[in-house]
Amino acid sequence: MSKFTAHFESQDFPNPVIIDCTASAQVSQMYYEWINKGIHVVTPNKKANSGAFDQYKRIRELQRKSRIHYFYEATVGAGLPIISTLRSLVETGDKIVKVEGVFSGTLSYIFNNFNGEKSFSQIVSEAKASGYTEPDPRDDLSGMDVARKVVILARECGLQLELDDVKVQSLVPEPLQGLTSSDEFLNELPNFDEEMELRRKGAEVSGEVLRYVGVVDVKTNEGRVELQSFPKSNALAQLSGSDNLVSFTTSRYLRQPLIVRGPGAGPEVTAAGVFSDLLRVAFYLGAPS
Ligand SMILES: NC(=O)C1=CN([C@@H]2O[C@H](COP(=O)(O)OP(=O)(O)OC[C@H]3O[C@@H](n4cnc5c(N)ncnc54)[C@H](OP(=O)(O)O)[C@@H]3O)[C@@H](O)[C@H]2O)C=CC1
Ligand SMILES: N[C@@H](CC=O)C(=O)O
Questions:
Q1: Domain spans of the chain, in order of start
Q2: Three-state secondary-structure class, residue 167
Q3: Which residue in 117, 132, 169, 211 is deepest, having the highest Cβ count within 10 Å?
């Protein structure tokens, strides 16, 4: 842990909460210790819940048997109520069949704006400047950020999925996969604009648009992340900005899935998601609502 060490003990404060707003796996490895010390944890960081299943299970079991809270609503959909919706479906006895849709604000923004007016690399830079991407945008373009969300949602559904089990279609051009820095990657990306433009035109000639989707299939115990083309009449084709659209097909919502849609990335909505979790901790601890 180079930059960060939590020095305080829980008894120094009446109800300590640590909010981890990094994307660091190292920081997320501290959660067990913090919860064990009586420190509540709130985070938009996906690393703990999409890391090794045993570690995740250890945290969840400790948190369940302690009176310590661990909230991570913003790990999927930023400020949108995705985790809480899924939880309330499961807790009220519904059976989840499938969770699918656009889970990435960055890739939504990119494909919602990739209409022939600007190059692919230009739109990637805009997504980064808008604060939608991960600290390293390759995490978005490689599909790993969506794959992590697929794992998080799958585990909420009761599956024991590991990140490696998710089939991922990466959008990082093969020759750029070995680059060490994200700056180098962004500098090289324009060289592959033509390749992406061909894919876009391929969908366009059939009257379709490209969308990057994630799927948790509970029946087959599978997760996948892929670029698909959709007719313009499809709800996914009508997204705008950084919209996420998450569709829950369940026993209760079988013919007509329950849908949550809205901006799914960016500093404001993410901060709101994290703040809402913090208020929930305070409320559960007895603060007036
Ligand atoms: N941006 C978004 O729309 C959303 C983001 N999230 C999640 O929120 C988290 C943060 O994302 P975002 O705010 O965009 O990323 P940023 O890169 O803007 O912020 C990350 C911050 O974490 C700090 N940091 C990194 N490692 C450490 C460490 N070991 N100790 C202390 N500080 C550290 C960085 O400091 P420094 O700059 O000094 O390196 C930086 O200030 C990620 O986990 C992301 O997945 C979730 C939902 C939406
Ligand atoms: N980079 C992510 C941020 C939220 O998780 C995204 O684009 O969705």
A1: 10-77+269-284, 83-264
A2: strand
A3: 132
22, 98, 203, 253 from 223: Cα distances, Å: 25, 10, 24, 20
**Cα–Cα distance for residue pair 258/99, rounded to 1 Å:** 10
Which architecture characterizes domain 10-77+269-284 according to CATH? 3-Layer(aba) Sandwich (3.40)
d(CA 181, CA 197): 25
Q: Which fold has domain 83-264?
A: Dihydrodipicolinate Reductase; domain 2 (3.30.360)
Q: Does residue 47 have an active-site annotation?
A: no
* Each residue's pLDDT tens digit, 111-128: 999 999 999 999 999 999
Write out pLDDT tens, residues 141-171.
999 999 999 999 999 999 999 999 999 999 9
Q: How large is the ipTM?
A: 0.97
Q: How do residues 226-265 score in pLDDT, each as one tens digit?
A: 999 999 999 999 999 999 999 999 999 999 999 999 999 9
From the CA of 50, the nearest ligand is 1
Question: Above 50 in pLDDT, residue 51?
Answer: yes
Entry field: residues in the chain: 289
